[in-house]
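Researcher: Good morning. I'm working through a list of sequences from a screen, and I'd like to move beyond sequence-only analysis. For each chain I'm collecting a predicted structure so we can compare shapes side by side. This is the next one on the list. No need for commentary yet; just the structure.
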Amino acid sequence: MQAPTLQIQHNSTPQSARSSLGLSMGYNFTIRLLTTLAAYLACTSHAATDGQVGQRSQGSLRISLNLAPQVQISNLQDISLATDGLQLATSHNQVCIYSRTGQYQLLAQGSGQDASFKLKQTGQNSHSDQWSYQLAYDDGSGPQALASGVPLGGLTGADPHSQTCGTTGLNGRLQVSSQPSTNQHPRPGLYTGTLTLLVAPE
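Model: Good morning. Structure tokens for this chain:
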């Protein structure tokens, strides 16, 4: 860095000129001292040093550890719903969320087209009928609706110590609700699908 230039006016007195010049020299010396000190600290803080030859030799090196955040979702249970097709059917699943940070986000995807929350009729006499359902998730602060493929962030209450939620107990609640059929005469039978839940740390 180029030192700042101090201009001395010709009409200045000798005393004022000496004062200004002394200020400039002191300023330059301070800059050089700080630059040297910063370079020394940079070398001693980050670089390994080898030992010298002698009866004893001592060297040093820096060790760093990057602890990656980890999460886990467990205690998932298959859900069975029963309905006459005209009434709302709801079931809940208590889950365990482990996160080293205590915070996380949740993303859900169904097995319908475009990962939609839909169940497909199965069995020998099955048709192409599908059944929609809705999801909500509660981390302890109240249920929030889940949209397929859209992360629900800002969730808290995960156990940061135990992967089996031995500290907090089961700390998440998944709610599945089947919607009344829009078909006036829905075909009876079994409708099945897969729900995938992805937990990521925050």
